[in-house]
Amino acid sequence: MTHDPVSTWYDDFFTELPNTFWRAAVPPAATEAEIDFLVRTIGLQPGDSVLDVCCGSGRHVLELARRGYRVTGIDVSAEAIAYARRAAGDEGLAVDLRVGDMRGLPTDVQADLAICMGNAFGYLEHEGTQAFLADLAKIVRPGGALVLDYGFAAESMLPGVALEEEPMTIGGVEATS
After folding, report:
1. Taking a C-beta distance cutoff of 8 angstroms, is the pair 75, 12 a contact?
2. Where are the alpha helices (DSSP H) in the chain?
3. Sign of CA dihedral 96, 101, 104, 105
4. What is the pLDDT at residue 4?
5. In which band, very low, low, confident or very high, does the pLDDT at 14 lie, cut at 50, 70 and 90?
6. Which residue among 8, 35, 71, 134 is least packed, with the fewest CB closer than 10 Å?
7. Which residues make beta-bridge pairs with 50?
8. Which range has highest mean pLDDT (22-36, 73-87, 111-125, 145-159)?
9. In angstroms, rounded to a whole number, what is the distance separating the alpha carbons of residues 12 and 141?
10. Residue 114 β-bridge partners
């Protein structure tokens, strides 16, 4: 499989340093609130299966497993998956954690819910995103759900927009278009 280098920047990016940042960036209460929202909105029942694509260090995987869901987590970062496996083992949680890529989802997984949260949805070019969504459609059972969390929707939908404002400076960092 060949990959567009623009959409594969993340293949080697998520090592210990950025993963440690993301592990510290989101407080446990935020993760719990996100899972509360999913359970309430989707109507998940104990024992339902969930696929977490781009699961990182497993914050959603672990919280879902604590609540009795059958969870498979996939991430391109071997470091993040190793961290999640250790955390799951420390808590005695049974989870299926795999090093893998959103461009090649497993064919042996069926899920009541598939999630791609934490902004990873925007990593692929348009054609890659279409293929990713088609692959997810094959994994989610009829009547199931797909939840995507993407904080930079404007940047992906409006790539040609030029700002007319002066550059923005925050904390000594200047943002320009």
Report:
1. no
2. 16-25, 28-38, 59-66, 78-91, 126-139, 153-157
3. positive
4. 47
5. low
6. 134
7. 71, 113
8. 73-87
9. 32
10. 51, 146
Domain 5-153 has CATH 3.40.50.150: yes
Least confident interval from 42-56, 75-89, 148-162: 148-162
Size of the chain in residues: 177
Name the residue type at position 70: R
Break the chain into its structural domains and give their ranges.
Answer: 5-153
Cβ–Cβ under 8 Å, residues 50 and 72: yes
Number of Cβ atoms within 10 Å of the Cβ of 151: 11
pTM, two decimal places: 0.75
Q: How far apart are CA 84 and CA 173, in angstroms?
A: 33
> In the structure encoding, which two tokens stand for residue 137, read together?
């459609």
For the chain, the farthest-separated pair of C-alpha atoms sits apart, in whole angstroms, at: 54
